[in-house]
């Protein structure tokens, strides 16, 4: 389909192609089993043809396009693939899918995992961790995420920005529990947003915007953003700290450091950018303690599936223990760089306890010089967990899924 779109419409079709691709990924684990019922040997089918069938099935089931138009377009795309007999097979299978899809999908939907298009292992993990909220989470993961902006209040008030949006006939609303967040009624290209090129606003989920406030960094403090790329939270911290910021942003990949640099250039902000391994302070640290450290740790990303539906296909249950081990190692290293009475904010976009309260519990066992600090945050639908707080996708706040916990380094080691 993408190849066909490229030949017919060029770059103008980019948003539509992206929407179709994301929609297919979002519902693949429901659509693929339905299509497989129509194939004699599903596993023997060439991967491009299987993908094409899933894309077309998504358009038939979830778009307003006439099914016969979708089938014809898929047959044209099959010819472009150059796979023997692909066009005839695609035509036959999709015409049967159009006729039989209520029965096909009814059989698929007998399984909860298939009905909500999630892998069974993840349904089990979410149901175990969140028995009361599991259904809401699974359904929310298949919704289209909102486009939320963070307003840099040093460049103008949120009311001023709302007026600027109105002048361009862009509908939006303020998020009442946040001082910075504005959610657009409909997503817009960033180049159409007033002030984006000049750094007045950035695209950032409202849940992610909490990090800078929760860290409670003040001008004059040494601050470390330990897993900084792509730089959204780094930029927000710099906006709050102003010109006196002493902030070091670290990531383990030079390419991702360049991404941070590009984002900060747009914001007209500056930080010390260091390539290094957050698990090993010797790769970047100068030995001077930090008063505040943000650890936005690499994780399973199970809280942002609505933005990245490919997570459902790519993530495996065996990925979780290595993530947790890495998270513990990063936090433990960060504690060693933390000043007495300094604070560390731990954050993930995971819904899984092993990566959240489990990590903090492990640190508390290993590091007698730290204690947890209760986070003063009031967000609709927020859930207080052991050692921290959790935002859930689909809850009243309308954010992605985030976990936050705060550690303080004591002077006595008790």
Structural descriptors:
9-stranded mixed sheet, alpha/beta, N-utilizing Substance Protein B Homolog, Chain A, 13 strands, globular, disordered N terminus, 3 domains, 4-stranded antiparallel sheet, 43% helix, 414 residues, Rossmann fold
Short précis:
This protein is of the alpha/beta class and 414 residues long. Helix content is 43%, strand content 16%.
Task: Please explain how this structure is put together.
It contains 15 helices and 13 strands. By secondary structure, it is α/β, with parallel strands linked by helices. It has three domains: 2-117, N-utilizing Substance Protein B Homolog, Chain A; 148-203, Alpha-Beta Plaits; 210-409, Vaccinia Virus protein VP39 (Rossmann fold, 3-Layer(aba) Sandwich), CATH 3.40.50. It is globular.
**CATH architectural arrangement of the largest domain:** 3-Layer(aba) Sandwich
Look at the structure and name the CATH superfamily of the largest domain.
Answer: Vaccinia Virus protein VP39
Provide the β-strand percentage band: 15-25%
CATH class of the largest domain: Alpha Beta
Gap from first CA to last CA: 61 Å
What structural class do the secondary elements suggest? alpha/beta
- SS element count, helices: 15
């Amino acid at each position: 389909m993408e190849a066909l779109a490229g030949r017919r419409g060029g770059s103008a079709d980019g948003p539509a192609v992206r929407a179709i691709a994301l929609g297919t990924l979002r519902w693949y684990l429901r659509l693929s089993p339905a299509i497989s019922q129509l194939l004699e040997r599903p596993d023997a089918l060439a991967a491009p043809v299987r993908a094409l069938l899933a894309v077309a099935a998504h358009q038939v089931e979830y778009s307003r396009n006439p099914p016969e138009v979708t089938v014809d377009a898929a047959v044209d795309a099959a010819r472009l693939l150059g796979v023997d007999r692909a066009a005839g097979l695609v035509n036959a299978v999709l015409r049967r899918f159009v006729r039989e899809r209520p029965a096909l999908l009814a059989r698929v939907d007998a399984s909860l995992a298939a009905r909500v298009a999630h892998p069974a292992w993840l349904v089990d993990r979410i149901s175990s961790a969140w028995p009361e909220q599991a259904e809401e989470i699974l359904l929310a993961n298949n919704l289209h995420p909102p486009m939320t902006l963070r307003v840099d209040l040093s460049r103008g008030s949120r009311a001023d920005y709302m007026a600027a949006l109105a002048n361009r006939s862009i509908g939006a609303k303020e998020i009442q529990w946040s001082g910075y967040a504005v959610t657009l009624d409909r997503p817009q290209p960033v180049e159409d947003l007033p002030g984006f090129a000049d750094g007045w606003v950035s695209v950032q989920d409202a849940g992610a915007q909490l990090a800078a406030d929760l860290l409670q960094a003040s001008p004059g403090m040494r601050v470390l953003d330990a897993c900084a790329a792509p730089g959204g939270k780094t930029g927000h911290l710099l906006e709050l700290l102003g010109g006196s910021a002493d902030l070091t942003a670290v990531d383990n990949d030079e390419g991702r450091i360049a991404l941070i640099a590009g984002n900060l250039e747009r914001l007209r902000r500056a930080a010390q950018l260091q390539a290094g391994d957050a698990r090993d302070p010797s790769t970047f640290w100068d030995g001077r303690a930090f008063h505040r450290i943000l650890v936005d740790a690499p994780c399973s990303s199970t809280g942002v599936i609505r933005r990245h539906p490919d997570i459902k296909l790519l993530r495996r249950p065996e990925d979780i223990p290595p993530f947790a081990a890495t998270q513990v190692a990063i936090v433990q290293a960060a504690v060693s760089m933390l000043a007495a009475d300094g604070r560390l904010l731990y954050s993930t976009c995971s819904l899984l306890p092993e990566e959240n309260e489990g990590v903090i519990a492990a640190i508390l066992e290993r590091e007698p010089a730290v204690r947890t600090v209760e986070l003063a945050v009031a967000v609709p639908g927020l859930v207080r967990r052991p050692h921290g707080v959790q935002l859930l996708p689909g809850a009243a706040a309308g954010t992605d899924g985030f976990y936050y916990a705060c550690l303080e380094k004591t002077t006595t080691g008790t």
